[in-house]
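forwarding from the other thread:

> can someone predict this with AHG?

sure thing
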Amino acid sequence: MLKRKKNAYLQHQNSNAMVTRYKIKTLTEFVIERQSEYPHAKGALTRLLNDIATAAKIVNREINAAGLVDILGTVGSTNIQGETQKKLDVYANDMFITMLKGGGECCAIASEENEKVISFQNNIAELGKYVVAIDPLDGSSNIESNVSIGTIFSIYRRKSEIGLGTLEDLLQPGVNQVAAGYIIYGSSTMLVYTTGKGVNGFTLDPSVGIFCLSHPDMKFTETGNIYSINEGNYVYFPEGIKKYIKYLQEEDKCTLRPYTSRYIGSLVADFHRNLIKGGIFLYPGTRKNPSGKLRLLYECNPIAFIAEQAGGKASDGFNRIMEIQPKTLHQRAPLITGPRKMVEKAEEYMRNFSPKMEHSPMPTEEE
Ligand code: AHG
Ligand code: MN
Ligand code: MN
C-alpha cells in the first residue's frame, strides 16, 4: 500500500516537473515579471511594449500575406528621404501609429516615414509619459524578394511635463533610452528587446499568435568571424574602413582569418544574424553619404542599446553611438556594431588611417 502511494506521489512529481520544464514563458508574462524589478513602475512601459508587440503581429500577418494578395509594389509617394515608399512601409507605419496612439502611454512618435514629429492629440495620449522613435519597416527594398525585413523601435521618457509631445522630447541621446528593440520578420518572426537589463528574444508561435521566450539573455561573443558591409561602396569608403576590410580578408591562423562576408541589406536581419553567430556590421560614411545611410534615432540608437546590453559595442568609428546628441529627427550616423573586440579593431583602423573624419565628415562627391 505504502509502495503504491509512493509511486503515485513520484509520478505526480514527475508530471509536475514536465509541466515546469516545458512551461512556455510568453512575452507578456516576461514583461510583467520584469516590471517588478522597477519599484515605481506602474505598468505604463509594460502596456507600451504590449502595444508594439500587438502591432508587430498584425504587420507580420500582412507581410506573410504579401505574396498572396496584391499589396506589393510602391504606393508612388516618396518619403522625406527621397525614397519611394512601398505599400507595406505605409501599412506598417499606420499600424504602429494607430496602436501607439490608442494605447495611451505614448504622447508622440518620430517615424522614418513622417517628416515631422507626430504628436497625439487626445486627452489620454497627451498624458502619456513616453515617446517612441520607429523605423516601421526596415529593409523594405527586400520585400519583393522574400528576404527578411524588420521593425526597429526606441522608447524614451518624455522631457516635457504634459500636453502635446514635442520635437525636444524626441531629440534625446541614445543613453536616455528606456527600452529598445526590433522585430525580425524572417523564417520565423522574433521580437528582441532590452530595457537596460540584458537582451531577450521571443519567437512568435503563429498558430496561437503569442511571442514565446526562446532566446533568454542574448550575448555577443567576445569576437566573431563574420563581417557585414556593402562592399559595392568600397571605392567611396574612408581609408580606415578600406584597410580594415583588407585586414579581415588576410590569412592568419591565430585569429582564424580570413573572416566570412555576409550581407543581406536589412539592418535588422544582418544585426540579428551577427548577434547570434558573432559578427560585425558596418555602414560607414562614404563620399556619397558622408554620415552614412542609417538614421541615428530609429536605426542606430536602438541597435546600439541592444548591442551594448548584449555585451557588444556600437560606434560611429570614433565615438559611442549612444552619446551623440541628435540635432534633427532624421539625422544619419555611421554605424559600426558587433562584438566588442571587432568594433575596437575597426575603431583602431579609423583612428590610424582616417583620423580627420572624427570631426569633419568626408567631402561629398561633388566637392
Ligand atoms: P529602410 O528599408 O528602413 O530604408 O532601411 C534600409 C537600410 C538598412 O536596413 C540596411 O542596412 C541598409 O539600408 C542597406 O543599404 P544599402 O542598400 O546601401 O547597402
Ligand atoms: Mn531602416
Ligand atoms: Mn524603413
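Residues 15-19, 362-367 have pLDDT under 50 and may be disordered. thats all i got for now
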